[in-house]
């Protein structure tokens, strides 16, 4: 009788070790994504960026994923050519993008370094440093989003049926750790703009170390694949068909989750990109104080997303959790916009929402889609989500400039935050529709994820 070897993913120590490794890749990804929010005012004083320039820089992350559909293409490539090759390619893009952004913000470039003259020779409305930073943000976004899809597939591969929601919660936690570090370190290093480019370079170096970590992961992935093939003598052949996409969007439950995803995150991530500036303008805090205050958000979610994930593994109730999280988000923005409640209170509410919805939303996908289509499903969801991550930072910057003419040092954010409240309300409607659809079609969204 042929002996079945114990595969690497059967070992809990290996599984959690892998989570640590790919979690690091996510941490540096989120670090670079969030490294700029506390630098908004420094970029205004050093580079002369307006609210719209900042919004454009923030939004450029999403251009490849929305207009070139790169996250969905990345997901399709992932299902077709596998984790190692796709992961390497997209972590590499993310690294190139981070290095390019650092270059655009560097003193060397801004003192007439390589490419400065050329970048100044077209589109004079945009400064040379903004143009290079936009290019960098473009490549960073192109790589970073598909990297998250790759990491999600890695977790499904190693954890399916074995604390998957907890693993997803911890994955999100690693991302939040990166955001926390960025919110704390960026303003400290930048020191009111005197070391602005060093603050950005630190992020670029961390992303480069993330590329090395992914190379290490690839060794374990190859080993696991060889074991799976030995044990099952199965060859995984995954042909992409457009029916995969049409199949996904004709599944209403999938569509509602994707629409909740775009609305929920559009009311959270773009808000965070402006939160430090909002806190200092509305509550008179310094950039370090407002960065520290904002950083409580990722810290709270770092702890609570895995806790909620573990609960969902055991008790289920994912759709109800998404509804509750969406209501909490709406209340948060209304408190921020219309009251002078001490900001820590709405921030705690935002933390609950920001922990609950991701803990429930991401692992629910295994209830709706087969594992060999999961990359495409996550990729499509990210591409749809990126449309929101493109539109809303820009819209926020435009509303901010329109309601505060003259690029003042202190701005009134009421209209901008009310816009986020309206988006949260739409998200709540999709969460309710998801629960209704699940009740009708019995996908089991409300059931626990762990196998009995
Ligand atoms: N598509 C990402 C966006 C992001 C934020 N920071 C870095 N990337 C996303 O939605 N992540 C899911 C999450 O809950 O963090």
TrEMBL record:
Chief place of localization: membrane
Entries under SUPFAM superfamilies matching the protein: MFS general substrate transporter (SSF103473)
Transmembrane segments: 12-33, 59-78, 87-105, 132-152, 164-186, 198-220, 253-275, 295-312, 319-338, 344-362, 374-395, 415-434
Catalytic activity: L-alpha-aminoacyl-L-lysine(out) = L-alpha-aminoacyl-L-lysine(in); L-histidyl-glycine(out) = L-histidyl-glycine(in); L-aspartyl-L-lysine(out) = L-aspartyl-L-lysine(in); L-alpha-aminoacyl-L-arginine(out) = L-alpha-aminoacyl-L-arginine(in)
Membrane topology term: Multi-pass membrane protein
Pfam families in alphabetical order: MFS_1
Record's signal peptide: none
UniProt xrefs under InterPro entries: MFS, MFS_dom, MFS_trans_sf, MFSD1
Keywords, comma-separated and alphabetical: Lysosome, Membrane, Transmembrane, Transmembrane helix, Transport
Keyword Transmembrane: yes
Residue span(s) of domain Major facilitator superfamily (MFS) profile: 15-439
Cell location: Lysosome membrane
Entry-linked Gene3D superfamilies: MFS general substrate transporter like domains
Self-association and partners: Homodimer. Interacts with lysosomal protein GLMP (via lumenal domain); the interaction starts while both proteins are still in the endoplasmic reticulum and is required for stabilization of MFSD1 in lysosomes but has no direct effect on its targeting to lysosomes or transporter activity.
PANTHER family: MAJOR FACILITATOR SUPERFAMILY DOMAIN-CONTAINING PROTEIN 1
Function field: Lysosomal dipeptide uniporter that selectively exports lysine, arginine or histidine-containing dipeptides with a net positive charge from the lysosome lumen into the cytosol. Could play a role in a specific type of protein O-glycosylation indirectly regulating macrophages migration and tissue invasion. Also essential for liver homeostasis.
Family recorded in the similarity comment: Belongs to the major facilitator superfamily.
The name this protein goes by in its record: Lysosomal dipeptide transporter MFSD1
């Amino acid at each position: 009788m042929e002996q079945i070897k114990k595969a690497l993913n059967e070992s809990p120590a290996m599984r959690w070790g892998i989570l640590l490794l790919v979690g690091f890749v996510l941490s540096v990804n989120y670090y670079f994504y969030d490294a700029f929010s506390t630098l908004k005012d420094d970029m205004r004083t050093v580079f002369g960026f307006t609210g719209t320039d900042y919004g454009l820089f923030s939004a450029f992350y999403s251009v490849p994923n929305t207009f070139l559909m790169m996250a969905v293409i990345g997901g399709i490539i992932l299902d077709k050519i596998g984790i190692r090759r796709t992961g390497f390619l997209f972590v590499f893009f993310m690294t190139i993008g981070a290095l390019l952004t650092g270059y655009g913000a560097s003193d060397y470039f801004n003192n007439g370094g390589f490419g400065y003259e050329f970048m100044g020779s077209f589109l004079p409305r945009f400064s040379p440093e903004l143009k290079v930073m936009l290019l960098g943000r473009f490549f960073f976004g192109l790589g970073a989003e598909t990297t998250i899809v790759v990491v999600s597939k890695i977790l499904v591969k190693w954890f399916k049926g074995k604390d998957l929601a907890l693993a997803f919660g911890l994955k999100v936690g690693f991302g939040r750790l990166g955001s926390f570090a960025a919110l704390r370190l960026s303003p400290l290093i930048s020191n009111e703009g005197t070391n602005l480019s060093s603050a950005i370079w630190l992020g670029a170096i961390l992303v480069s170390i993330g590329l090395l970590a992914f190379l290490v992961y690839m060794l374990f992935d190859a080993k696991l694949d060889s074991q799976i093939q030995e044990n099952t003598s199965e060859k995984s052949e995954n042909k992409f068909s457009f029916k995969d996409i049409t199949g996904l969007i004709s599944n209403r439950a999938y569509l509602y989750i994707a629409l909740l995803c775009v609305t929920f995150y559009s009311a959270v991530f773009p808000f965070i990109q402006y939160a430090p500036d909002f806190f200092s303008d509305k509550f008179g805090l310094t950039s370090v104080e407002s960065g520290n205050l904002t950083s409580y958000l990722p810290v709270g979610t770092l702890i609570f997303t895995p806790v909620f994930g573990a609960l969902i593994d055991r008790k289920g109730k994912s759709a109800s959790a998404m509804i509750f999280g969406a209501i909490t988000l709406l209340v948060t923005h209304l408190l921020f916009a219309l009251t002078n409640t001490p900001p820590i209170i709405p921030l705690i509410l935002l933390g609950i929402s920001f922990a609950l919805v991701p803990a429930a939303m991401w692992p629910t996908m295994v209830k709706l889609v087969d594992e060999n289509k999961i990359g495409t499903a996550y990729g499509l969801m990210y591409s749809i989500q990126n449309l929101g991550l493109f539109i809303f930072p820009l819209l926020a910057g435009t509303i901010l400039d329109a309601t505060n003419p003259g690029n003042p040092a202190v701005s009134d954010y009421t209209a901008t935050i009310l816009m986020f409240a309206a988006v949260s309300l739409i998200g709540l409607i999709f969460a309710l529709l998801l629960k209704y659809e699940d009740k009708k079609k019995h996908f089991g969204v409300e059931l626990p994820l762990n196998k009995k």
